[in-house]
Design goal:
The chain has a single domain (about 15-210), classed as Cysteine proteinases (Cathepsin B, Chain A), CATH 3.90.70. About 40% of the residues lie in helices and about 20% in strands. It has a seven-stranded mixed sheet with strand order 2-1-7-3-4-5-6, with helices on both faces. The protein is an alpha+beta fold. Helix 3 runs parallel beside helix 7.
C-alpha cells in the first residue's frame, strides 16, 4: 500500500487536493503546499480546477504524465467549447460548464501540456483493466468518478480521488472530502469499479518520475 500525504477539499476543489497529494508524494522534500498548487493552477474558490497548468509544472520538473480520457483535446484546442461538448454526455458537460470559471481559459492552457514531450494522451474510455495496469506501474494514479454514486446517492458530481491500493476485494483511496475524513478510505472492489465505469467519461492519470 502506498503511503501518501492526505489533503481534504476546502470547497469544490477535489482535483486541486489530488494534485497536491500527487506532488507531495513525488517530491516529498520540496515542501509543496495546497496553496502553491492552487496558485499555479489559477484556482478560484467554488470552481473546479483543470489539470493542464499542474501537469505542465510537474512535467517541467521532470515528471511524466499519462492521461486517459474521452475528451478530444485537439478538438477543444481548435474548436473551443463546442469541441469539448462533442466529447461528453450532456449531464457531464452541463456539470463541467456550470462549475468551471472559464472554459475558454482552460482551452488556452491545454496546448501547453498537450504538446509537452513528457505527456502521453490516450483518447478513449478508460477501462478498469487500464486502471489496474497503470496502478501497478511506477508512480501514482488519480481518477475521476461520480461522487453521488460512490456515496450511494442519485445524481452526478464529478469527483477526483487518489488511488492508494487495489486488491481483488477492495480499493483503498484518498477521498478529498469537506470534513477531512477521507484518508485511506476503503470500498469494496465491485462497488468502486461499478461507480467508475458508470459515467461516460471517466479520467485516469498516472504521474511518475521516469518512463
Amino acid at each position: 500500500m502506498k503511503i501518501v500525504p492526505y489533503h481534504g477539499n476546502p470547497g469544490n476543489a477535489c482535483a486541486l487536493a489530488c494534485y497536491t497529494m500527487v506532488a507531495q508524494y513525488l517530491y516529498p522534500e520540496d515542501d509543496i503546499t495546497f496553496e502553491q498548487i492552487g496558485k499555479l493552477s489559477g484556482w478560484r474558490r467554488g470552481y473546479v480546477v483543470w489539470g493542464s497548468p499542474f501537469c505542465k509544472w510537474l512535467m517541467d520538473k521532470g515528471a511524466y504524465v499519462t492521461d486517459y480520457d474521452v475528451i478530444d483535446y485537439q478538438a477543444w484546442i481548435t474548436q473551443g467549447t463546442e469541441g469539448l461538448k462533442q466529447s461528453l454526455a450532456p449531464e457531464e458537460f452541463k456539470w463541467i460548464a456550470e462549475n468551471t470559471f472559464s472554459l475558454e481559459d482552460v482551452q488556452k492552457q491545454l496546448s501547453l501540456s498537450y504538446d509537452h514531450p513528457h505527456f502521453r494522451y490516450v483518447k478513449r474510455k478508460v477501462t478498469w483493466d487500464d486502471v489496474v495496469d497503470e496502478f501497478q506501474k511506477p508512480g501514482i494514479c488519480d481518477l475521476t468518478l461520480n461522487l453521488q454514486a460512490l456515496n450511494h446517492h442519485s445524481g452526478f458530481v464529478s469527483h477526483r480521488v487518489v488511488l492508494i491500493d487495489v486488491s481483488d476485494s477492495e480499493v483503498v483511496f484518498h477521498d478529498p472530502n469537506y470534513d477531512d475524513s477521507g484518508a485511506y478510505r476503503h470500498e469494496p472492489l465491485a462497488h468502486f469499479k461499478q461507480v467508475f465505469e458508470s459515467i461516460e467519461g471517466p479520467e485516469l492519470c498516472r504521474y511518475c518520475l521516469s518512463t
